[in-house]
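Trying the structure run again after the queue cleared.
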Amino acid sequence: MDHAHLMQVLRSAALEGGRTIMEIYEADDFEIRSKSDDSPVTAADEAADAIISDRLRRAFPDIALVTEEQADSHEQSAERFLIVDPLDGTKEFIQRRGDFTVNIALVENGVPTFGVVYAPAKGRLFYTDASGQSVEESGPFELDTVGEVKKIAVSQPDNTALRVVASKSHRDAATDAYIGKYACADMKSAGSSLKFCLVATGEADLYPRLGRTMEWDTAAGDAVLRGAGGAMVRFDDHAPFTYGKDGFANVFFIAYAPGVALKPA
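Done. Tokens:
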């Protein structure tokens, strides 16, 4: 596969999806409905999904596509697939808090090898380049012209004063109890896959998630984190975290800078 072409397509698809999301976000009102699992969905989720799916299917017709908003795609099984969350952080979107992202990743043999995370309301764009190195691009973001990019890398953490990031909408007592095992100097809350990116840029050292997620929630952020020298493991036994699982459902996990001395579950 031509990885430069892959990332050109993923980047532009994420930007197009993000533009559509922002048009709806900035409107006076938008419709909110509930899916079968009672999670919210908006016109922005569906409009961005349509745009991104069309771009990816036309560019890569031979690669399986899994996307949150198309339930029939969740029944697939493939060793290589593209996986999309067109609007990660719908609750943040509905509450107009800005912490939502567009996530697109390529998974190969259980590993997210390339990915893009775009936070349109925050004006932040993270992705892996053709070599797999993660970068952050500075805006304004043009579809066909890449702006200034800088390589990003995880921190070299001081285990006596860690910086932790946790979910803004899904924080619970179990998460707080686990975080309490560490010596923390700073605690951030963030929505969506931005938490992965904060670890990838060195703005945080540790992100534990003790809650339900799906692979489309994490693959792109995980790819960016890995490309910045970070890691993601299962929460229960710290084994490698893999993708392509049955139903694309995740177990609990920890994303971190490798210098963090992980505590047992």
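The chain has a mean pLDDT of 94. Worth checking whether this holds up in the mutant runs.
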